[in-house]
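Subject: design request, 396 residues
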């Protein structure tokens, strides 16, 4: 019987089964599911475990491009990891995740992203949290110390505003690390999803030019600002002035802001309205592909990275990193052929966090995810992959 179990890419004929399993496993509204599988879903991005023709488990890999270390990296966002109730506790999710990494490697997508139902399940396979949000739930009067009347706000149709939103977002996200470089099609789909939740778009203008926006979604007793972006600090203050002024009575304001946003230092009175929210996990799919696609400082150096990866065996090696002119060449080296250069031992979790900018080399060393032979090696790591401010706001 076990010989009938097969992990393979989905085909167009599998759509009904993939959708039915999604509906069985996830608590999404019928309108969202209908939209997702008619507009967003693609069979070519889906893997399934089948018993003959019957689907037992599936996962999807949504392609994105993100900005990392002054380079643009292709990645995939793993979503919809689901298993039929009768097929659980048989290791199918683990098998699917490895198959996703193998397929990403084949497609040369060196970073894998996912939003976990719980971190513990994915830690064992090498994913770690690399993106955090500041989540604020507060009364609008808490904004009075920072809100300033500036520019003019108008409500605008979501789809009419797409070009202006895309321009503001690109400028807002540019300083951040790991942000998605959104295409016009991705913007269209994002706004279609927002429309399903009755989201309204408010655009801030100054002297006829768009300077900021907020996407406003009403919830029971709350107003969820699903995305807010601005070009300059005055525009941020103007958006907060608007939110403070027009919030319905007895409603709380729910904001999700970048981890380094300064609003937390400017609230009027409360001390418990903010928490750091683990938002998205990331993992290097292929060490050599990833490191060769990054940009580096203009220096000449060599470094051996001995990477431990108990899940993706192709990463469980010692790699010689040769840096010259802002680029790198990476090759596997055996113990008997290692040159006399700096030698670093690091876990795949540590390397992922280091490259993504989430943790510094010193922080990883203190957590025992990194071992270095001396301070010079640590300083080289800090020079190659300094700490960065990360931001992403994609939910799938």
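Subject: RE: design request

Done. Sequence follows.
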């Amino acid at each position: 019987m076990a010989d009938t179990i097969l992990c393979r890419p989905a085909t167009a004929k599998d759509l009904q089964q993939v959708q039915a399993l999604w509906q069985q496993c996830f608590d999404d509204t019928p309108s969202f599911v209908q939209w997702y599988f008619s507009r967003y879903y693609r069979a070519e991005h889906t893997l399934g475990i089948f018993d003959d023709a019957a689907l037992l488990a599936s996962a999807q890999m949504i392609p994105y491009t993100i900005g990392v270390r002054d380079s643009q990296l292709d990645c995939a966002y793993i979503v919809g990891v689901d298993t039929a109730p009768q097929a659980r506790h048989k290791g199918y999710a683990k098998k699917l995740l490895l198959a996703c990494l193998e397929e990403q490697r084949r497609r040369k997508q060196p970073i894998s992203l996912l939003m976990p139902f719980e971190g513990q399940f994915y830690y064992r396979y090498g994913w770690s949290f690399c993106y955090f949000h500041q989540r604020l739930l507060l009364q609008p009067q808490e904004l009075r110390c920072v809100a300033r009347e500036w520019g003019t706000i108008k409500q605008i149709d979501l789809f009419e505003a797409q070009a202006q939103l895309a321009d503001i977002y690109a400028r807002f996200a540019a300083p951040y690390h790991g942000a998605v470089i959104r295409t016009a099609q991705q913007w269209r789909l994002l706004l279609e999803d927002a429309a399903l939740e009755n989201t309204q778009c408010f655009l801030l203008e100054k002297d006829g030019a768009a300077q900021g926006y907020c996407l406003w979604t009403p919830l029971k007793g709350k107003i969820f600002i699903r995305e807010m972006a601005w070009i300059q600090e005055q525009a941020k203050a103007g958006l907060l002035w608007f939110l403070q002024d027009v919030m319905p009575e007895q409603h709380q304001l729910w904001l999700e802001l970048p981890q380094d946003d300064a609003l937390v230092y400017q609230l009027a009175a409360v001390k418990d309205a903010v928490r750091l929210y683990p938002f998205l996990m990331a993992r290097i799919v292929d060490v050599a592909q990833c490191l060769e696609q990054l940009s580096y400082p203009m220096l000449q150096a060599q470094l051996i990275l001995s990477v431990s990866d108990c899940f993706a065996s192709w990463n469980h090696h010692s790699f010689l990193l040769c840096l010259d002119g802002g680029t790198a060449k990476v090759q596997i080296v055996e113990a008997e052929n290692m040159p006399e250069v700096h030698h670093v031992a690091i876990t795949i979790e540590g390397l992922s966090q280091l490259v993504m900018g989430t943790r510094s080399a010193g922080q990883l060393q203190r957590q025992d995810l990194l071992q270095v032979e001396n301070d010079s090696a640590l300083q080289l790591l800090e020079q190659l992959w300094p700490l960065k401010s990360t931001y992403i706001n994609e939910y799938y």
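The longest strand covers residues 54-68.
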